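Q: I have two molecules that I believe assemble together. Could you output structure tokens for the complex as a whole instead of separate predictions?
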Amino acid sequence: MIQLKNIEKYYSSKGIKHYVLRHVTTTIKQGEFVSIMGPSGAGKSTLLNILGMLEEPTYGNYEFMDEDVTNLNERKRIELYRNHIGFVFQAYHLIDEMTVYENIEAPLLYKKIGSSERKSRIADLLDRFNIVAKKDLFPNQLSGGQQQLVGIARALAAQPSIILADEPTGNLQSAQAEEIMQLFQKLNKEEGITIIQVTHSEKNAEYGNRILHIADGVVKDDVAVRDSVKI
Amino acid sequence: MFKLNLKIAIRNLWKNKGFTLINIGGLAIGMACCLMLLLYVNYEWSYDKQFKNIDKIYITGLNLKFNGKLATTMALPNKLSKAAMEELPGFKRSARASNENNVKLYSHGQDNFKLTSLYVDPDFIKIFDYHFIYGDANTALNEPGSLIINETTAKKLFGTQNPIGQRITYDGKKELKVSAVIEDLPKNQSMQFDVLHPWSFLDQINPDDKDNSWGAITCFTYFELKDNVSMEATNALLQKFIVNKEPELKKMTYEPFLFPFAKRHLYEDFQNGKSVGGRIDQVRLFVFLAFCVLLIACINYMNLSTARSEKRAREVGVRKALGSARNSIMGQFMIESLILSFVAMLIAFTLLEVLLPYFNNLLDIKILINYSSLPFWVTLCSLVLITGLLAGSYPAFYLSSFIPVKVLKGFKGSTGSLSIRKVLVVLQFSLSICMIISAIVIYKQIQYMRDKSLGFDVAALAQIDLEGELVKPGKLEIFKNELKRAGAIEAATEYAGAFTRGGNITGDLSWPGKPKNDVSIVSYRSTGFDFANTAGVKLVAGRDFSPKFPADTTTSLLLNQEAVKLMGLKNPIGTVIHWGDNPPLKVVGVVHDFFNESLGAKVTPTVYYYNLRDSKSLLLKLSNKQSLTASIEMIKEVSQRLNPAYPAEIKLVSEGMADKIRSEKLLSVLSNIFGGFAIFISCLGLLGLALYMAEQRSKEISIRKVLGANLSDILVLLNKDFMKLVIISNVIAIPVAYILVTKWLEKYDYKITMNPWPFVLALLTSIIIALLTVSLQTFKVAKANAVDALKYE
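A: Yes, here they are, computed for all two components at once.
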């Protein structure tokens, strides 16, 4: 599904190149649950941003679903966002002016899905995440964990094939974090959604089936998670 | 999608009530100003456009040499209309109109009214399609004794009776019969009258006029062209028409030309025989002003919206990551600004309806909002759209351009947009400062013209028309003596007409040493005895007209200084001057130039001669021993007694003079009001910007305070940036305003000398106002508790 070849990213200042990513080459298949780990400043988020096409690599080749997306124009990128990619952010990034219901509805509107279909999908998501009672509240009326649930529901609404999550539990208490991770695992197992997450926590990484260790912009380790560790 | 956008827009506006209020307030005021000005412009623009055939109706102008300059007048020989109609192709109809001596007494039974009339050819009412209530255009003016009156006059004279066939006494002498009644004329028509007489009636009153030479220019001439006949072609035929008839006139040019009647009101100024604008300049200025005010309001909106960008940036980033196209984000911001501009329009509209009567009153016009007119609604809607789009475009472009990854990582207000915001503020303030300076200069020029020594005793002068019994010299003497005895007046003299209005001119004077080809034109006014004394005009040399010198009634002249200069007389007293067929005339006195006919322009060379028959009014110097009203009451009482048939109408010369600066006053009023609003709106914008800046810098300020900065340090720090902007605006605005006002002042022969103080005043005003506005906000920030801002980091 995703093929990275020799991805490099650097910023040059005063003629000196500061590498963020170097020679990143990897393949992620449909249905994988990949965790990107590494110390602060290692380039995890940059890698995720490149995967999400929010940033462009300085060098290298990126194929998404057998299509070269290294230099994609805005319209095509938006098409991909609408149909294939769901984002989950550490800071939730819900739209403050919209209710829970409307936040989840937004990507469906952009995808131009008919209103009855929209209604049933949202009802389904609200139901699944147990937030039916909260659908008319605004984000600032919810707890962090609830906001992140809404964030995930929003990411799922458009039925993406891949979810990119940048430290989805970074702002949450451990109990809530566990809940979110279980949800991810369930989505990955039962619906076959590819998930790529950036995380600091070894424990969270264990929920996935593959871990990419990054340090100083280089992929140091690429290990499969043993089934036995999983619950 | 649209519904959601709408909902979110409304929520957003509601959440930021302060910003919304400033935004809507600014936009509403801007729109109200703009609408008001546009209504006024429309009013001026629609002058005379009510006539059905307006595109084919032309008024005739005449270019003639006038003291070495080519001048243009709308007065023409009364023979032209008929002769041109008969001899030249292309004309469908032609008509003359004369407004000579046009205010007369009309009576029916016991009711006496002074009404304004026009003497016209029968085709006049076919060229101009007035709306007939009774009678019709084909027959109404066929008899010399018939007349057309307007609705108001009909009501005044006959109440609810059918006025057709009713008798009206004209000037206490002639019996006339009403043949038609027309609807009242709209105020925005350049020809205003209560009564229309047939030209044949004028011929009865002035039988000699029929034999006027081609050189005598006495009436207006209107032509209606046939379809498919161009004005240019006709003008080519018309150009030499008069000089071919009368080759003598060639040295004075005498070239008639057609001018579209629709343009008569707005393009009334001519220079060198070419139309050079006129009121249209003012109208253009107002259109410009209207859009400036609107632009200032829009800039406000742009500024405030982009200032809030930081708050909106995250929303934009998330939406983009969710797959929203840039267009739909732009749409969201556009909808917001359209909602705002719609609400603003509702408020502006209410303001307009409330203020319109005051505005009408102030400018002495009659603007009504025509709710049934399509153009009005179209304008209104397009104004909402234009404002919404104009105001929303920049924020929409700017905000939708955010790159998601940047804003999601944490966006610290981009510096680039701040500089654009600064440019916008500078633009806004420059416009406002220009308006302030112009308003001051206009005000000063008006003051100057009003306070200028006029050279005559303006405060003490009043006038009364000589009519009825007062035309008889014997009765007039009694009248004057009674008034003097009663102590109402100190002196009185007859005068040609209204003292503050222009009068006759002639090129027929000759004086010793006048060059052969000189065609100088001189004004002439008839007076009675005691002229200089009554008017309070200084005599430079010689003496006033006086009954002690019998020759004064036939062969004496007074000149003004301009006339002496024109004639190049070293020793004017005793100079013999020839004037047409009159016996040789002798100059007995020279009066100081005085400004009774125009305030800003030079005095024209004028001769004064004694003639009671030519004098249509009596100039009265009111006594200063009693109050003005007492004197006027007394004059009224005496006039009523001696001349009972005529209502005594006493006009103060000072009022006539005030009328002369009407257009300047209008400009002054409008520039004051709208300049004031422009500054107000700009300040709203500044307030918004200060609000934003205070919010953005609250952390910095808190840190500074913790480090030991005191209140004044922080106020200086915060206000400095804004003051810089205001100073830059001044630097831009002052030269521009200087150029504009010097250009405006060019048209006055007598004008204020430009000095720096209007500019200094504008500079200080703008700085003080801006300082107050900004301090309102910065003070709050500077006083705030430092911990509050710091603890959330």
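A: One point stands out. Residues 25 and 344 of chain B are 7 Å apart (CA to CA).
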